[in-house]
Amino acid sequence: MPIINSFSGQRLIGFINHKPLIAKFKINIDNFEFGFNQHTLSKEYSGEFHPDLFGKSFEIVQKNYSAPIGKVLSSKGSKGTQTTINTLPWIASLFDVAESEMLKEKKQVSKEMFENIAQVIFPTNAFHKPKRDTGLITYLDISKQFNLQPSDQYTNIEKSINRLFTQYSNNMSVFLQVSKLPHSYRLVDQKLQVA
Fold first, then answer.
1. N or C, where is the chain less crowded by C-beta within 10 Å?
2. Hey, where are the domains in the chain?
3. Half-sphere exposure in the Cβ direction for 189 (13 Å, CA)
């Protein structure tokens, strides 16, 4: 396996008031960064969306558009994966738990949390013209290469994820309107270019 210095990914979740909402992560040997490109999560309360989202519209892009950070979002390789009304609450709950896990432990993210986040956002570079020197990379390669350690508290972490997912799902009511954007590459591309 080639030496990998970092791995990153981004996924288009939808549009909030016509602005793209993108979930992203980047990991290297010392650091794991993740988040949304817009203020999405409340800074005060776990399980709640940012108050600025109140009354806004949220359009879900049903096809999975993802790419490495810095590359153009594409739906290549997303066969069978879709973005649903549950995608935003799920990613939000993963981000919330990963943040508290890393703050509490003051260390690199656990193997399970990284794999959960990478799996839902960007699990492999297989469909995005991998570099010749690195070739095909999956999130499992990253876990091994960076020697990410399993959490000894994963049962509790799973419970926290599920609890927060329920809270975020209930908090989707913050949006005035939630709709599905019809699947159309042209429509999504136009919306991304305007933003």
1. N
2. 6-187
3. 6
Amino acid making up residue 193: Q
Residues forming beta bridges with residue 15, ordered by sequence position: 20, 59
Q: Which residue has the tokens 């030496």?
A: 3
Q: Which long-range contacts (CB under 8 A, 24 or more apart) does 146-153 make?
A: 146/27, 146/28, 146/29, 146/108, 148/108, 148/109, 148/110, 148/111, 148/114, 149/108, 149/110, 149/111, 150/110, 150/111, 150/112, 151/101, 151/110, 151/111, 151/112, 151/113, 153/101
pLDDT single digits (tens) 88-125:
999 999 999 999 888 876 677 999 999 999 999 987 75
Q: Are 102 and 33 in contact (CB under 8 A)?
A: no
**pTM for the full predicted model:** 0.88
Kindly give, in sequence order, each residue whose CB lies less than 8 Å from that of residue 77, ignoring residues fewer than 6 positions away: 124, 126, 127, 128
Region of 145 please: left (phi>0), alpha (psi -120 to 50) or beta: alpha
Distance of alpha carbon 103 from its chain centroid, rounded? 19
Q: How far is CA 138 from CA 57, 87, 119, 123, 167, in A?
A: 34, 21, 9, 6, 31
